[in-house]
Amino acid sequence: LYSGYVHCVGSGKEKGDRSLLTAACRLSRQQRLIGCLTTLPVTHADEVLRPPRWAKWSFLWPPLTCCGVLSLLILFGSLWGGFGRLAALVALLGLIASLWWLSVRRLQFWNTGVSLPHASSRHKPAVVLSGGKRLTMWTVSIPIARIQQVSLRQNPLQSRRGTCNVRVFWYAESREHFTVRQIPIDKAQKFFSFLEYPQKAHLPNDID
Q1: Over residues 18-35, mean pLDDT
Q2: Which site from 38, 52, 67, 205 is most exposed, i.e. has the minimal number of CB atoms within 10 Å?
Q3: Which residues pair with 130 in a beta bridge?
Q4: Which of 173, 204, 199 is nearest to 188 (CA)?
């Protein structure tokens, strides 16, 4: 199930406002409802720039670390008896929550991507971004004309592995931005080259 929002780009207090349109709808219905308001794409094109498979460990290591620590607490706590067993029970509840967190982070990895509509598409030129934040997954469509800045950021490990976090800023009073993690930097640079020629803002054919 998906919830749909519209980000206002007006002025004053309404600028950057995030208003709920539809809540808990299936994707097919969500597309129909939003399609009544705008020609912006709601989903990715067929060709999507995604993180490499090895990058999934950067999504999974926090919950995996929690699972490992809590498993050790359960093991040693069950051997101590008394207070140790109580601690093991609490750790067991935490382990269940960590396994759920692990499944969410895995889905966030598969949801992460960047795309543009093809030249033959009926959709308005826009960048479609998707990713995850905390315990949710999101997909956002930003019109090309509303993009203010694109920032490619790397930490030392990403610099060695050739990936980056793509941060797209759009015109809003609160300097709103969306971040897509672990995108190959060489492909990201080629992908966002359309910003020099916004009238040609369609999916490049040679990003692979």
Answers
A1: 72
A2: 205
A3: 113, 139
A4: 204
